[in-house]
Structures are given as C-alpha cells and as structure tokens.
Fold this sequence. Notes:
InterPro entries: ATPase_P-typ_cation-transptr_C, ATPase_P-typ_cation-transptr_N, ATPase_P-typ_cyto_dom_N, ATPase_P-typ_P_site, ATPase_P-typ_TM_dom_sf, ATPase_P-typ_transduc_dom_A_sf, ATPase_P-type_domA, Ca_ATPase_N_dom. The protein is of the alpha+beta class. It contains 39 helices and 28 strands.
Amino acid sequence: MILAAKFSASSVFIPCSCGPPLYKGIVLLCSAGVPSPLRQYFCHLDPDADPSDPFDIAQTKNAPPETLKRWRQAALVLNASRRFRYTLDLKKEEENEQRKRMIRAHAQVIRAALLFKLAGENQIVSDTPVALPVDGGDYAIGLEQLASMTRDHKLSVLEQYGGVKGLSGLLRTNLEKGTNEDEADLLNRRNAFGSNTYPRKKGRGFWMFLWEAWQDLTLIILIIAAAVSLGLGIKTEGLKEGWYDGGSIFFAVFLVILVTATSDYRQSLQFQNLNEEKRNIQLEIIRGGRTVKVSIYDLVVGDVVPLKIGDQVPADGVLITGHSLAIDESSMTGESKIVHKNQKEPFLMSGCKVADGFGSMLVTGVGINTEWGLLMASISEDTGEETPLQVRLNGVATFIGIVGLSVAVSVLAVLLARYFTGNTENPDGTTQFIKGRTSFDDAFNDVVKIFTIAVTIVVVAVPEGLPLAVTLTLAYSMRKMMADKALVRRLSACETMGSATTICSDKTGTLTLNEMTVVEAIVGKKKINPPADSSQLHPSVVSLLSEGVAQNSTGNVFVPEDGGKVEISGSPTEKAILSWAIKLGMEFDAIRSESTILHVFPFNSEKKRGGVAVRRSDSEVHIHWKGAAEIVLAACSRYLDSNGCLQSMDEDKEFFEAAIDKMAASSLRCVALAYRLCEQEKVPSDEESCNDWVLPEDNLVLLAIVGIKDPCRLGVKDAVKICMDAGVKVRMVTGDNIQTAKAIALECGILSSAQDVTEPTIIEGRVFRALPEKEREQIAKKITVMGRSSPNDKLLLVQALRKGGDVVAVTGDGTNDAPALHEADIGLSMGIQGTEVAKESSDIIILDDNFASVVKVVRWGRSVYANIQKFIQFQLTVNVAALVINVVAAISSGDVPLNSVQLLWVNLIMDTLGALALATEPPTDNLMHRSPVGRREPLITNIMWRNLLIQALYQVTVLLVLNFSGLTILGLEDDGDREHAYKVKNSLIFNAFVLCQIFNEFNARKPEEINCFKGVTKNYLFMGIVGFTLILQIIIIEFLGKFTSTVRLDWQLWLVSIGIGIISWPLAIVGKLIPVPKTPLSAFFIKPFRQCRRPRDA
C-alpha cells in the first residue's frame, strides 16, 4: 500500500511505504556461505565466535546488515510477522535511507546554489525586489514567506526585511529578551506558524495484533482441521453432539490468539511510551529575559534559542549572534562537512548539531514547515532492533523446532500406520479401522484427528514465544528502569549491561553532585577569606575579574525587575564562578553592555581552557582566559596582587603551584582566571579576519585561582562497593587535575587506600596517550584513575580494554565523548548535563546523572539474562515432558493421552502466560553477588539442565505409569463403562500434567536457590498468573469436559493431581543439592564438532 502525505508548506508529495512483513510462513533455509572478509572480521572481534553459526553474534551494536540478514534466513519460523516484529526491518530501513537521500538532495541543491552565489559576489546585492511581507494574522509576515526564506536560504530576502533585527520586529520578538511568557501570545504563534511537531504514523491497534497472532501456519492448519472436524461431526452425529470436537479446537485456537494478541499489544504500548520519552528533548530558551527549560514540542516561531557545542538545532532559524559557531549538517545534507555560520551564512537547519562555538538563533520555522520535519514525517520510524540474546534464542527455538517437527512427523507416521493396519483400538476394545467395513466419513474423521494431534505437537514443540520472551522482559525492564532514572535507547544495551566487566565513569556530576560553589580564592599571594569578600581587593582587580567572568562565559544572569532572587544559568562550573563574581559586586548586564566581544575561543576539552577578546569603552582590547589552573598558570608571566599592582611570576610560581596542589588534594576543582592587553595593531580590522584570529595565550597576567567544591554524591561509595563485589571494576576518567581525581577516588572508594596511588593505577591522560599500542593494552587493565584526560584518551582506554576482552560501559556528557560512547559496548550519557550529540551516541541515558543509577542498570541487565534463563528452564521442561509422553504413548498404544485442545492449553501456559510470569521477575540482591555473565556463557547452564531433566524425568515417569497402568492403580478395570474409565484416566493425566507445570513455575523462579518462595508474595503479576491458570484449569476440568474430552474428577483424584504436582517442590530441593560440573555440557558436544569442521574449512 502506498500512502501519500501532502504538506502545505512545501507542496511536496512524499510516498510512505507501509509494506508487508519481510518474511512470511515457515522459513527454514540452510546457512548461507559468509564472505571470508566478514568471517575474518568477526573472528578478530571474538576468537571464540563460530563463523559458520548464523546465531553466534556477540554484539548486535553496529553489526553489518549481512549478519542480521543471515540469522533471519536460518531461523525456523511459524509466524514471521510476530517473531520478527521487534527486530529491525531491513527492507524498510533501506527504503527509509533512500527517502532520506531524496530529501537531503533538496538541501544540497540549496547549499550549492548559495555557495555559488557567495563565490561570485563580494557582497550580497538584490537585483530584484522581493514582495513585501503579507499580513500573517497578528504578525507582519506570513508562514509561506518565512518557510520559503529559510528553506531556500534567501539571504537577499532577509536583508530586505532588515536582517535578523528587522525580522524580529515583524515577528514581535525582542532579540535579547525573547518572546513573552504569556500563554495567549504562545497560542497565537502556534496558530499562525504551526507547532514544533510533525505527523507520525499511528501505532498499531489491537485488531492488527489479533490479525498477526493468527498468522501462525500451525494455527491456520488447526483452524482448517477444526472446520473439517466440525463439518464431519455435525454430519455424522447431528448438530447437538457433533460440534464439540471441531468447536473445542476452534475455541482453544481463539483463546491462544486472544491471549497472545493482548500480551503483544501491551508490550507495544510500553515501547510507544518509551519512544515518546526519547523524542521529548528538553532545551533552554530565552523567554521574558530569563532562561527557561521547555520541551522541544513547546518551541514557537519567534523564540530566541541559545546554542552551544553538542546541542541539536531544534527548529529552522536565523543566526542572531555567533562566536566560532560551527554546525554539523550531515543529518540533513548527508555530507560530513562542518559549516561555519556567520552573517553571510546565517540560516540554521533543524536537526543539525552544533559542532563548535556558541551563539543564539531566532526561530523562523517549526514542525512540518522545516526540512527536518518533512524528513521525519515522510519516513516510517522503525524501532526494531535485535539483541544478542534474541538472536541466540532464535537459534535455540530453531533447534527445538526441528526436533519437534521431526517428532511430530514420526508420531503422524506411527499413528497412521497403526490406524490403517488395524492396531488402534477404541476405549471399549473394538478396532477403529477395519478394511472394507469402516465408512469413508469415519476414516476421514479419524485421520483428521490424528493429523490434528501431530500439528498440535508442532505448536507445543516450536517455541515461538522464546525469542519474544526477551522482548517482553526487556520491555518490562525498560519501564522499570525509567523509574530508576535510566532511559534505554537501544534494547541490546539493556542485556549487554549484565555482561559488563568494567565501568569507565566521569567524575563531575556522576560521582559528584554537580552542585558547585567557590570555597577558596587566591588573588595575588593572598587567600581571600571568605572568598567573595571584595573589601580585601583593590577596585581595579574586582573590575578586571568581573569583566573576565561576565564576558568569558556561556552562562547568563537574570535580575528580576521586582528585586527577586537573581537567576543564574549555565554549566555548574560557570554558575559557581558567576555566583562568586556577583557576590564580589559584578553587574553582569552593565559589563556586557560596556564592552564589545570581538572574538571567542570556546572552552576546549583538549586545551582545557577558553578565551575571549573584548573591546572596552576606552578602546582598549583585553583578552581574558579561563581554564584548568595549572595550564593557565603555565602561560602566565606576571600576576596582579590584591592591591592591583603587577608582580613578576618568576619567583612566586612555586607558591601558586603549591596552592593549586593543596586545593586539589582537598577535592577542589581548580580554575584560574588571567588576562592580557592586546596591541591595537594586532587586532583584526574586519569580521572575516576576526573569525580566523588566534587569540594570544602567552605573557598572561594571573588574576585569581579559585577552588570549587563539588561534593561526592550520597551513596556513591556504597554503589562502587556493590560493583566491586559484583566483579565489575570501576574506573574514573576525568579531565580534572590528577590530585583532585585522586582525592575524589579515595572518597568514593574507587581507590581503597593512599598506598594504591602509584602509576599506572593512577595516570595522566598525556602519559597513557604517549604509550605504544601494545603497551597501552597491558597498562589499561591496571588503570583505576585517569586524570587530565581528553575525550580521545577515553576512547583509547575503551579500545584497549575491549581488545583485552573486557565488556566496557562508559559514561559521558560532552560532544567529544561521542566516539567513546559509540565505541563502548554500552554508552551511558547524562540526562541533565549531557549534550544531544552525546545522548544520540549513547545506548542508555542516565536521567539523574547519578552513578548509583548506573549500578541499577547493571542489576537490571543481569536480571534480563536471569529471567530469560528461568523461562527457558520452565519451557523446556514442558517441551520435553509433553513430547516424550505423547511419542511413547503413540508408538506403544496408537493413542495419545493429551489431545489437541489440551495441548493448546498447555502451550498457552508454557508460552504466553509462562513468559509473563517469569520474564517479569524483579531483580534480586543475589544477582550482584555473582560474576558478570560471559558473552559466550551457554544459555542453558549445567544447573538448568539438572533442574529441567529431574522435573521432566519425574513428570514423564509418573504420567506414563498412569497412562499404561492407570486403570489398575485407580481401580477402574472393572468399570462397566470402559470409555468413561479411559476418560477418567486421561483427565487425571491432563490435570496432573498441568498442575506439575504450575508447581514447577515456582521452582523456575530460583534455579540455584533452595528457597524458591522468597519474595513470591511481592510479585503480584506472578501470583495473579498462577492463580488465573489454576482457576481456568478447574473450570476446564469441572465444566468444559465436552470441549476438552475430559470428565469431572472427584475430590480424591484432585488430591492425587495436587499430590503429583506438589512432589516437584521437594524433588527440586533434593535436585539442587546434586553438584554439577563447571564445564558446560554443550562444550563436550561442540568441541568434537568444531574439530571436525576446522580441517574442512581450512
């Protein structure tokens, strides 16, 4: 189906594909040959990986499409639309990429035309007058003019409006104070220019899930068989009695479809809510002269938006002011080129990222009236993504499915052979088929019943719900993790976190509170106490400090007209220094209006400092620098003492270095403020030269050194200890002074004692960076604290640790952290201080920037793996028991004790209800007392094999004894009604079998612990599902006998059923006392197989 969406602003039709699922029906293809470069690539990543196994994918993050396509083709699938629902639709992804390229081409054409025009003209001249703005309701400019000007980058049109200042007048916006905070004004703007939203494809409704649930090939066959059985039954026995057999199968199939669809629909709603959270970006804008935080959806045309490095441009707009502002337009143009924005190229496109510098913009286009909105509305967002566990479970499901299919075919062949050779008897002892006597209708009906049993065995045997159980537990975990302040962007990270062996954490804001205050200040050689006491300083010193702080800052100060509390915005460090300067007497707005900024060198995490050149009212040019104390100090040749006199640095440098070390040892962040005069002849005269001006950073005059306190978070020491006990090493990677890093690490428990503080346990980034690659890999294992590190040092550390076999989680908040976040197995960005670039490169966003939340993510990651293992153990026990009971009974007697309807009910308990009950178990403290889950650790551990084999063996033994000797044991041999006696026996077998599964569900909760009831009463979902299953079982036995071919059981037989089921509890306790070998059982089978394959592959 092709849908066309018309967008009024651009009058462009964009086709949107909503095609059918990529796969249909049963797909069982042989593993395709893999190109040798790809095979070598994966072997390099993981030497233990088996390149011939399509399901052996250790990391789906950044996996090539060939690998993803390969495992899909190798999977045995009964219902592709359901099985592959939450995996990436590779076909749709390709279509989306093509559509993105098409829309990007539009932006490229505009850009090429603009560059051509700028190259041919020294200054922009408009040859043809542009039409005057048409009245846009309450505004002097209309939507179409704005959209056209911004979209086509019409600089001449902007100039005719009077530049950005004239445009702000047309939009009734103050460039310094922004729009009003008045709701009526904001509503007017939305009505006139639209809201910052775009139409999105509506989520699938419940009926669509119902439609998908019944597209299971085996269910379709069962429906056909039920229809045939219904027709034959009514024909031979009449409507009153003949509809039961076919009707009961219909009802059972409908129940399976309904429960499956309901479960899947609930999952879908959870994912929709989480995706909405991801899209809802919070940003700072200027309204009413103050900096306020709003949702990206609340942005309106006319808003003034400050931009800084790492931000996403939230809408189309025009540059107001910018300093070294560089924009990465690759998301729109497809080119990785960085574009510098200035008054000659002032147009900003929504969806692009700020790569460098800072500035502010006037919003001129929002939502669907932007190129980005058009792009987002025209592609159907696919949130599908497979995880390593999901892929492995598809492999397990395929293996079990093949075994089950083989068993079903064997049972079908045996039952048909016995039937047509006259070896199958009715309950009364008469032969079912006698050649020449049995009517065609009776024979056909019997064959349909046999065929139905075989198909139902396939339904039970092929665990379609196994891979979906991963999605269920991930959806549950993601929802709960939101409450624990962690927003999951990639599903795979949720489970990979359970395998994490090391966490490389930032210091500021993660291990500390990010609530900074200046607690020490040194001006000249004098310690100012209290640090904001201006009476101890000469007025000229206060003036220079105030100028340096006010102009060399990306923060802002808002002083309410009514004399209320001063509001300070910016990064925590900026806020601390601005607050200190205000207490010294700084008048922020007055200083900014008295001097003009000529050029800005934005703070750089590589150089650890930032600078600004300002022209004062007396025409003097001052260059102010601010940054890491020891780095700024190294560039100083003089200092200003507290009396305002210049002093030489030569003799006193050691004093300042000692002061810095003393502050750092007290866990303080040390920041130095310095300045210098710049000769007029060295100041560039025009704007273009000014943009390329390299600010001088030598011969500086030191103004002050401030010590900023950022206390450790409460509970961070406990969180670090929990990680250490769980086998996860915590490493601190910080840009701060090595002494500050050491002090905080000791305070947090990352370093156990001062004796640990030797290289390479604690190391500087420059030292690590200088090491040869091989040596870096060896040293990386020993590093606990890295100080004065750059983002590139963090990336090198991550790469070295991963090569050494670690599963690495990394925290980051800056734009330059993006490569490390992308490279790590799990990238964790900060929700409060993190830039949009960092968030987009990460897998999980820590919403409260707290290290304790990172530890909770580890717990949930381990819980995902543990819950899946519980479900596998439970499901395989049912699989093995049901298959063995039916196969042995079919071969020996030609009949099966568990019929189609009963098996469908068992399938429902095992598949959907079992997944709901076990895959949503909350994490326990016990999870953090074991080692991380290895990438290659088998899904089915030796403990699981022991548990499931004991339970399956018990169930098979008891139920087969009942099947063959049940009449004697129950004293029913002398029953006059032979058929009723058989029904009682089979009803008891069915009832006992179901109760065994209900009781075994408790055992599956704690595969390794003796007490399987611990915490069960707190898990209301588990108790609810067990109760629901039990009530339904009672209803089936007591009231639905006609449908399930069962009879009512008296209280003695109910006690027998409960007794058989309850024995599984003490049996499980005894079983858990049996020791198991540490070497996985699978290794004994795989090793010879691999040895045979290697010579053949060589």
